[in-house]
Specification:
With 348 residues, the protein is of the alpha+beta class. It folds into 3 domains: 162 residues, Reverse transcriptase/Diguanylate cyclase domain (Alpha-Beta Plaits), CATH 3.30.70; 57 residues, 5' to 3' exonuclease, C-terminal subdomain (DNA polymerase, domain 1), CATH 1.10.150.20; 100 residues, DNA polymerase, Y-family, little finger domain (Dna Ligase, domain 1), CATH 3.30.1490.100. The protein is 38% helix and 23% strand. The chain is built from 13 helices and 12 strands. The strands form 3 sheets. A 5-stranded mixed sheet has the order 5-6-1-7-8. Strands 9-12-10-11 form a 4-stranded antiparallel sheet. Strands 3-2-4 form a 3-stranded mixed sheet. Helix 4 packs across helix 5 and helix 11 packs antiparallel against helix 12. Bound molecules: thymidine-5'-triphosphate and magnesium ion (MG). Its EC number is 2.7.7.7. It is found in: Cytoplasm. Monomer.
């Protein structure tokens, strides 16, 4: 059966988070990166890209191109927090997720509850926008290479599907730099002998790929013919299933916190059931308004993936906590899996 693979990638991620957290930055050229003299740009908003600014460019050059830009230091802890929220949403689509970086992942949704890739893509885009307030670009295809190419197609806030009947025509006019897996050096080498477009490369005999590109040559030969058999690899040695959320406003109302725990327990139980996994250590984590993290765990004497077991344990943990400060983030996770179930998960 043909697979359905999604590649998702946040738009101008660090810069978008800055614009999310500070309304005054919206619609403006925002450049995030090291601010020292030798610092480089981590990323910039699409408004700044119009001036030619891009990732990895020295800040002093960016300042020449875009003197009116707003230059900000990175706030990694915040990007990680938002990244966690994004991956929580992705996990509601499937557990077969391969994270590639803080803002990017492959999903294999072939056996998920979604009828097709477009539906799953819209679901992800809607939730990321409504719950987090950011835009994400999604590519849909029947393999990883084409899904990644597709997510870049209509950036920002893009959605694009590449189907089998579009191959190879859709690929032929692209510059070879668009072929994921072809490094900068290889692109230069090929440019030097007059190969600029996929079309030029497509016409070369198989031997040429091996001679010019070495051991990855044959993969490139396949890819531009729409062939890529790489699996979406789930996070290796996965040790826990979890959910967490930064609250809209800090609270120390236990009733409100319990509502979150109930929701999370339901979501985690559903994922565990789907993957046929059972765990026995349940952890509640929360962050207080002063950013202090607290974690409390309880290990049951049996394995479970049952909603009530998870929720009741969380409630017990929370009941034993004295909460004096406001809480800004709450989450739960389950770990210590039954041996055979996690083996199955790896195989799967
Ligand atoms: P990317 O997804 O490559 O870039 P982006 O999300 O900023 O923009 P877009 O996807 O819309 O083109 O990288 C994700 C984040 O990783 C980015 O926001 C900042 C960080 N990053 C660096 O710190 N240095 C880099 O050289 C790159 C490419 C990214
Ligand atoms: Mg991105």
């Amino acid at each position: 059966m043909e697979k359905v693979i999604l590649h998702v990638d946040m738009d101008a991620f660090f810069a978008s988070v800055e614009q999310l957290d500070n309304k005054k930055l919206r619609g403006k050229p925002v450049i995030v990166g090291g601010v020292s003299e030798r610092g480089v740009v981590s990323t910039c908003s699409y408004e700044a890209r119009k001036y030619g600014v891009h990732s990895a460019m020295p800040i002093f050059i960016a300042q020449k191109l875009c003197p009116n830009g707003i230059y900000l230091r990175t706030r990694m802890f915040r990007y990680k927090e938002v990244s966690g929220q994004i991956f929580n949403i992705l996990r509601d689509v499937t557990e077969i997720i391969e994270p590639l970086s803080i803002d990017e992942a492959y999903l294999d949704i072939t056996n998920s509850n979604f009828d097709n890739g477009m539906e799953a893509a819209k679901y992800i885009k809607n939730r990321v926008f409504k719950e987090i307030g950011l835009t994400i670009s999604v590519g849909i295809s029947y393999n990883k290479f084409l899904a990644k190419l597709a997510s870049d197609w209509n950036k920002p806030n893009g959605i694009k599907i590449i189907t089998k009947n579009m191959i190879p025509e859709i690929l032929l006019p692209l510059p070879i730099s668009k072929i994921h897996g072809l490094g900068k050096k290889s692109v230069e080498k090929l440019n030097n002998i007059g190969i600029f477009l996929v079309k030029d490369l497509y016409e070369m005999p198989k031997n040429f790929y091996i001679e010019y590109l070495g051991k990855y040559g044959l993969e490139i030969y396949d890819r531009i013919r729409g062939i890529d058999n790489r699996e979406v690899k789930i996070e290796r040695d996965r040790k826990s299933y979890g959910r967490e959320r930064t609250l809209k406003s800090d609270t120390n109302e236990k009733e409100e916190l319990l509502m979150y725990l109930e929701n999370f327990s339901g979501e985690i139980s559903k994922s565990l059931l789907r993957d046929n996994v059972e765990g026995k250590t349940i952890t509640v984590k929360y962050k207080t308004s002063d950013f202090q993290s607290h974690t409390r765990s309880k290990t049951l004497n049996y394995y479970t993936n049952n909603f009530k077991d998870i929720y009741n344990t969380c409630r017990e943990i929370l009941d034993n906590e004295e909460i004096t400060q406001g809480i800004r983030l709450i989450g739960i996770s389950i770990s210590s899996f039954k041996e055979n179930t996690i083996e199955q998960l790896k195989l799967f």
